Amino acid sequence: MRVVAALSGGVDSAVAAARLVAAGHEVTGVHLALAEKRYAGGGRGCCTLEDVHDARRAADVLGIPFYVWDFAAEFQETVLDDFLAEYQAGRTPNPCVSCNQHIKFAAVLDRAQALGFDAVGTGHYARIIDGQLHRGVDPLKDQSYVLGVLDAAQVAASMFPLGDSHKSQVRQEAADRGLLVADKPDSHDICFIPDGDTRGFLRSRLGGQDGPIVDAESGETLGRHPGAVGFTIGQRRGLNLRQPAEDGQPRYIVDVDVPSNTVFVGPPVRLRVTGFDVDRQRWTGQPVVCGDVEVQIRAHGEPVAAHLDGVTVNLPGQLSGVAPGQIAVFYDDTRVLGSGRIVRTV
What we know:
By secondary structure, this protein is an alpha/beta fold. 25% of the residues lie in helices and 30% in strands. It has seven helices and 17 strands.
């Protein structure tokens, strides 16, 4: 098969490409330029000049062609603009999920197929078994959650060579193959926010002014915040509240009202929900209209039992820290069924 190997400049994508070559595929390495301006140094994201050079060196070691594909405009429109709009609406987006949906497995796959390639291979820790998307075997690295937005056609044209491996095996293989990225640290945080300061990034793009932090139970104003945009339900850090709760329990953000620029805080019990509604549903195979599933709402969160009834997810127990804007991914054991964006909690 003719395969585009997405080379981020990290160890995972390099070993994934190496395995595709070893399997006998005709592989072309492609690095995605997603930022209009690259920055130097060993950043924590995936948009550095170092990453481009590391991707190119990996392709050279593997003896495969290498290209840089510019998707900065598409990334701005489908990922970054959506990220800003979601936070401005008081929701909590996941830009990695959005990037997989709109860039890596839509724009990239479309271009690859238009150029005559059969598939796109990446370094995600996930598996395709009998044409179905499944979790990776390494529970610490499983990335099936961020792939829950793929549809059946995208799954059919995707290859995940690392899904049966653990991270330690991948690093050792990279060293054995002479890939210089064998010991390169993993990227963290959001790729377009290399310093990890999400609220600072949002303030620089959306502005903001200070507003009240209000006790959701008493209505008392407890403090001030530098701008409601960027705070999320379940958050505790960054509130700088000097007045403790009467019962001594910690306070968490339980609601964010962006129009009134108000952040509401309360005890942990106010974070518990028994269900939620979703929109933007995507299915990796046949749609699930009604049935028992497992649902996961964070990339490395614990899956919990749930019952899906159309767009409503009912939980037999309670779940904490569920925020509108988060992506709910549905599973049947290890198989990824699909996903939806949380729009309302109950």
